[in-house]
Amino acid sequence: MSTKEKIQEDVSVDVEEGKLNEIVLYNDDVNTFDHVINSLIFACEHTPEQAEQCSIIVHYKGKCTVKTGEFSDLKPRCSMLLEAGLSAEII
Questions:
Q1: Model-level pTM?
Q2: Where is the Adaptor protein ClpS core domain (predicted)?
């Protein structure tokens, strides 16, 4: 009879944790669902399904995080949303 020994190794993984920011989109009574959806597809590179879901969340909850990432990537995206007449901010 032979025995097999199992060895468990502890592995340390270094993860770089940078500060991630978020674009938060707020509800308004001006823009249509289609306009919001098209703006999210263009500015945030959402799929049509993602954009539709975010627009529904914004409508019912009042706000929704639509993109997460580094500030340098989010700033031009947020500017596009603002230029499209949407209410958004980076937090």
A1: 0.80
A2: 19-83
Mind listing the pLDDT tens digit for each residue in 3-34? 777 777 766 655 556 789 999 999 999 999 99
67 beta partners: 23
**Angle in degrees, 0-180, between the axes of helices 48-61 and 33-44, rounded to the nearest 10:** 130
Amino acid at 90: I
Neighbours of 12 (CB within 10 A): 4
How many residues belong to the chain? Answer: 91
Evaluate whether 84 touches 41 at the Cβ level (below 8 Å). no
Contacts of 87 (CB under 8 A, 6+ apart): 25, 26, 27, 28
Residue 45 burial (CB < 10 Å; 0-12/13-18/19+)? exposed
